[in-house]
């Protein structure tokens, strides 16, 4: 890794899944689950998982990706992001329901904002990146907004998949997603 890393923040469903996906990619040095996209919490405290899950914070479950742009581009991260969740459903990914599971990109630079907007336009024009053919006719509703603040999730969420591979959620939801990513993006996988 070079000394120059950048940050990308995405929300595309449960952060256990997205964390596991992006940790596999070359050029990604860290992936941290957390919360963002809502207003600052009262009292300046970090929102809790329970508060976010109850829908009282306006935050989404997101991941903060630290990456080396010399090894992996923001556009490549966007490609993986859109290939691993359904950007056409409102507040839902699979069986996970609630605004905390919405599709969201939180940009930290104007360049990221422009790249995200252009990427979505390209997907809409070419019907690329959607998980299922039936999604091709539905508009992408991914929210794009500036990153205000990232609130790290509680410790038990960090590296969740690595610590809980045999749990039913990991076996039924995360494993199939990881296999798909490994097949579709084999050249991008860490050794």
TrEMBL record:
Domain Peptide methionine sulphoxide reductase MsrA positions: 8-170
Catalyses which reaction(s): L-methionyl-[protein] + [thioredoxin]-disulfide + H2O = L-methionyl-(S)-S-oxide-[protein] + [thioredoxin]-dithiol; [thioredoxin]-disulfide + L-methionine + H2O = L-methionine (S)-S-oxide + [thioredoxin]-dithiol
Keyword check for Oxidoreductase: yes
The keyword Signal is annotated on this UniProt entry: no
Top EC class, one word: oxidoreductase
Keyword annotations from UniProtKB, A to Z: Oxidoreductase
Membrane-crossing residue ranges in chain numbering: none
Molecular functions (GO terms): L-methionine:thioredoxin-disulfide S-oxidoreductase activity; peptide-methionine (S)-S-oxide reductase activity
InterPro entries named in the record: Met_Sox_Rdtase_MsrA_dom, Met_Sox_Rdtase_MsrA_sf
Active site: residue positions: 14
Role summary: Has an important function as a repair enzyme for proteins that have been inactivated by oxidation. Catalyzes the reversible oxidation-reduction of methionine sulfoxide in proteins to methionine.
NCBIfam families assigned: msrA
PANTHER family reported in the protein's UniProt record: PEPTIDE METHIONINE SULFOXIDE REDUCTASE, PEPTIDE METHIONINE SULFOXIDE REDUCTASE MSRA 2
Similarity-based family: Belongs to the MsrA Met sulfoxide reductase family.
UniProt protein name: Peptide methionine sulfoxide reductase MsrA
Gene that produces this protein: msrA
